[in-house]
Structures are given as C-alpha cells and as structure tokens.
Write a structure and sequence with these properties.
By secondary structure, the chain is α/β, with parallel strands linked by helices. It contains 15 helices and 16 strands. The N and C termini lie far apart (about 50 Å). Helix content is about 45%, strand content about 20%.
C-alpha cells in the first residue's frame, strides 16, 4: 500500500511491546510514554492516508469490519466470557456485568451500527459556509477531520466498534484504550476491525488498541500534546474526572448521567408510568437511564403507587411527601439527589409545580438528559427551554439519548459540555473545520 512502509520501519515499538508482554506489571512510565508516542506516530501516518481515501474506500473498510465481527463471533464471545467471569469473581455489580456482557444479539447490533455509519453521508469536505468579499476573495469554511483521537473507555466492549466506525468515516485515526475488565473482548473486536481495514487497503494503524492494562498508558495519552489531538473518555465519574483534571491534550468530556424524568400535573399518567418504567429499567447501567423522578404534588398520590407497582423490586428513595404516599420506602439523603446509581434504584422528589421542578432539576442534574411528561405544550416548551442539558425530552424515555437512536448510526459518547459538541457525538461532531480562501492575485493594501 502506498505510504504503508513509512509505518513499518524497525523502531523501538517491538522492543516496547515485548517488554510490556513479558512484564506488564513492571512497566515504567517512560516505557508507557514511548509506547503511546509510537502508537500516536503511526496513527498520524494513517491520518495522512485517510485524508486521500475515498468515501467508498472508507465505507468498504467499515462494512468489512462489520462482517468480520459476525464471522469472528465465537472468538469474541469466548473472550467476553473470560472478561465476564473475571468481573463476577471480582464482585462487580449486576449493572456492570450487563454493560460488559455480549451475546449474539449485541454483536449483531454492533455490526449493524457500523453498517449504518457506512450508509451515512461522508462529513469530510462539507462546505459549511461561503463568503464573497468585496475585494473578490471567495472564502469557504470546510469540514475536516480532527486528526488523532484518543478514546479511553471502561467496561462496554461495543465502544471500540462504534468509535472505530465513526472515526474512520470522519477521516480520523483512533487509539483505543479499553478498561482492564473488557481487555480480552476489546482485543478480539479490534482484530475484526483490522480485517476490515486490510480488506479496503487502508492502514491498520488507523485503529489501534493500547495493548496493556497498565494505568501509566492512560497518563501518557493524557500528556501526548502534539501527538494526540483530542481525548474522549467514556466511563464512570472517576475516569472522566481524572481525564478532566490531568489532561494536557484537549478533551471532549462525558460526565455522569444523573438524568431526571419530571411528571407534570397535566401528564397522561398511563403514558408516564410506561415511559418512566422504561427510562429507569430498560437497561440499568447506561448513562441515559433515569436516576431521579420528579413529580407534581397534584398527581403524586395517583401516580406514585402505580409507578411503584410497575417498577417491581426497584428500590425507591423519597422525600417526606413521597414517603407518606409510599410507606416503607427509604428516605432520600442529600447525596441521593446528585447520584448516578447505574442500578435498580430511583430517587423520588415531590414538587409544587413547573417552577419548582425546573429549579430542582437545574440544581441536581449533570447536564446529560432530562425529560418532562406532560400534555401541556406550554409547560413542555418552558421546561425544554430552561433546563440546560445536552438533551431535553418531551413525553419520551431518557434512554433514547443515544447516537443510534438519533440516526447517527452509533456514538462515541454523550458530550455534556458546551464547547464544540454537545449530546450524542457522531460523525459531524468528529470534524473540525478550516477556511479555504480563493483569490485571483489579490494583495492586501498597506
């Protein structure tokens, strides 16, 4: 392949890899830094080749990678069984196991997500704006890849497949650092992605996986200024806070998902029971799961017993009014209002109307996803305008906060900040832009 020889020269990397494989527990930070620097160098070379790759070539790589996921299904499931077994022995909670575990359906969903990305329009080269200047200059703002993405994630193996497809289609190279809990699964998934790249004649260095579970590699990625262009963490609060506090490289943060569902006085209560039950329990361990229920006092007596019956064994933690309506539930503490449980637990707050609800949600949410259940369009408009979250919903489950559900094919995370990207991060959000200025010999006056 043209240019591939530049990435295959004998270099310190084989020695570094050998050292890591032989004695991972004793890796020095300097070894991890050299290793990450070499991954980044190879990724940068791959970015140069992706820049000239056609949309058809990128799509071929993504589709072939999806096919390889299905073909390698048994290997992936065996590797995942090892990860799940290790997690159970380590005493990980059920919600964690659910995030980690794969089955045939989830592998098929990963593959289908990749195929959907391949079917989407190529975001690279889009002309975002044009300006004709009085001096005859024609200026275009054009979408371009960000470059080398560092993806640091924890237990969900599908993140590697999603990130690979999205980065490839948007012309970026990606360095994947999965959590130690999903180490075996991630390796097999990456092998499938590599098959897709080879089938399309693209460098396998476009998608690389950090081959060590040593935490020093994460530190090296966070400090790889000028080598990695953007770090995206996807995982628990401690991981994201570490990235936020230690990164010298620009970051796109996904903070915890303390999501709220608010049942307004004019809600359809049948609808609200169904939606909130799904928002809480469809999958407990996802960041879009509702963790806090807010209910108007006017409907709380009718609504809460019906919801409690629908939720079954869900542990409810309520304020004094919720406890009066549902005797025997636990008292909520101040900490509960700010907690992302990722478990079958729901905090319950009774409020005195829309203003009280907006104030409560605004004080305790994490800026991820919040929803209002109401048939009052004006109340919905006020809630959706004034609650400052990345995603705000009306009469829908918060678990729809997902790139696939938004038509993006997949997502690399839910950005909860306010710069560059917000909400599900898909193809368009993995592009930056530059300006192209076309002239006819113009010179700027002194």
């Amino acid at each position: 392949m043209p240019g591939r020889s530049n990435c295959a020269e004998p270099s310190p990397r084989p020695t570094i890899n050998q050292n890591m494989e032989k004695n991972m527990a004793d890796i020095e930070p300097t070894d991890a830094k050299s290793y990450v620097d070499e991954l980044a160098r190879r990724a940068r070379s791959a970015v140069a080749q992706l820049a000239t790759a056609s949309t058809e070539t990128k799509n071929k790589a993504i589709r072939a990678g999806a096919d390889a996921l299905i073909e390698r299904q048994e290997k992936i499931l065996r590797a995942n069984a090892r990860d799940v077994d290790n997690a159970r022995k380590a005493g990980k909670p059920d919600a964690f196991i659910d995030r980690l575990a794969l089955d045939e359906g989830r592998i098929e969903a990963m593959a289908e997500g990749m195929r959907t990305v391949a079917d989407l329009d190529d975001p690279v080269g889009r002309v975002l704006a044009t300006f004709d200047r009085p001096n005859g200059l024609k200026i275009e703002r054009v979408a371009v890849p960000i470059g080398v993405i560092g993806m640091i994630y924890e237990s969900r193996p599908n993140v590697g497949a999603d990130a690979s497809a999205l980065c490839l289609k948007s012309g970026n190279a990606v360095i994947l650092r999965g959590g130690s809990d999903s180490h075996h699964s991630a390796g097999e998934i990456n092998a499938a992605i590599a098959e897709g790249l080879k089938a399309a004649g693209l460098p396998t260095e476009a998608v690389q996986i950090v081959g060590t579970t040593d935490r020093a590699a994460v530190g090296a990625m966070l400090e790889a200024v000028g080598k990695i262009d953007l770090i995206i963490p996807r995982g628990g609060k401690s991981l994201v806070e570490r990235v936020r506090d230690q990164a010298k490289v620009p970051t796109l943060l996904h903070l915890d998902g303390n999501c709220h569902s608010y049942v307004h006085a004019r809600a359809d209560l049948d609808k609200a029971v169904s939606v909130v039950q799904n928002a809480k329990q469809r999958r407990l361990g996802v960041c879009g799961a509702t963790e806090s229920l807010v209910v108007d006092r006017d409907v709380a007596k009718d609504y809460l017993p019906r919801l409690a019956e629908a939720l079954g064994d869900c542990e409810l933690r309520g304020d004094e009014e919720a406890q009066r309506i549902l005797p025997g539930i636990k008292a909520a503490t101040a900490e509960d209002w700010d907690t992302e449980y990722l478990d079958n637990i729901l905090s319950v707050k009774v409020v005195d109307g829309l203003e009280d609800a907006i104030d409560f949600v605004s004080a305790h949410h994490s800026g991820h996803t919040d929803a209002i259940l109401t048939e009052d369009e004006d109340a919905a408009r006020q809630f959706m305008t004034r609650v400052d979250s990345a995603v705000v919903m009306h009469n829908a489950s918060t678990q729809f906060s997902d790139g696939g559900e938004f038509g993006m094919g997949a997502e690399i995370g839910i950005a909860t900040g306010k710069m560059h990207a917000r909400g599900p991060v898909g193809l368009e959000q993995l592009c930056s832009f530059h300006y192209r200025v076309h002239g006819e010999g113009q010179t700027r006056p002194a």
